[in-house]
Amino acid sequence: MATYENSPTMLRGLPGPPLWVCVLLGLVMIAAGLLVLGDVVLFTVISAIFIGWTAIVAGGFEILHAFWTKGWGGFVWQLLLGVLYLACGIVLLSQPVASALLLTYALGLMLLVSGIVRMLVGIGHWQQSGWIMLASGLFGVLAGLIILTGFPATGLWVLGLLLGIDLLSHGIGWLTYALQPAARAAQ
C-alpha cells in the first residue's frame, strides 16, 4: 500500500525554480493584476465569457464521455449534465453582462451561506480554536452581504476586483519567495 505525505519535507529533494523565473512570474502576475484592476468591469465580463467557454468545453466532453462509457450506467444523467453545461455556457456567452450579474449574485449567496455555516462550526468547536473559524465565517458573511446589498451594481465589478486582487497577491507571493535569503541560497 502506498502512502502519501503532505509535509514539505517530501519536496526537499526537488530543485526549486530558478530565481529569475520566480521574479519574472511575480512581475507578470503583478502587471496582470494591475491591468485587471485598471478596468474591473471589462474583466468581469471577460471572466463571464471565459466561464461560458469553459462550461461549453466541459459539457462537450461530458456528452462524449457519456457515449464512451455507455455500459457503466448513468448514461442519461451524464448526457443531461453535459447538455446542462452546454446550455449554461451558451447563456453565459450570449449575455455576458447579465451572466456576470448572475455569477456575482450566486457568489454573494455562496459567501453568505458558507459564512453562516463556518460561524456555526466555529461556535460548535470553540474549544479547538473555533474562534478562527468564527472569524472566517464572519468575513464570509460580511463579504456576501456587501455583494448582495449593493446588487446589481456590485455585479459589474466584483469578479474583476477579486481576479485583480488574486493576481496581485499571487505575484507578490512569488516575489517574496524569490527575495528570501533561503531561496537565493538554494540557487
Automatic annotation (TrEMBL):
Q: Does the keyword section mention Transmembrane helix?
A: yes
Concerning InterPro entries, the annotation shows: Acid_resist_chaperone_HdeD (IPR052712), DUF308_memb (IPR005325)
Q: Which domain of life is it from?
A: Bacteria
What residue intervals traverse the membrane? 19-37, 43-68, 75-94, 100-120, 132-151, 157-179
What keywords sit in the KW lines?
Membrane, Transmembrane, Transmembrane helix
- What is the protein's given name? HdeD family acid-resistance protein
Taxonomic lineage is: Bacteria, Pseudomonadati, Pseudomonadota, Alphaproteobacteria, Hyphomicrobiales
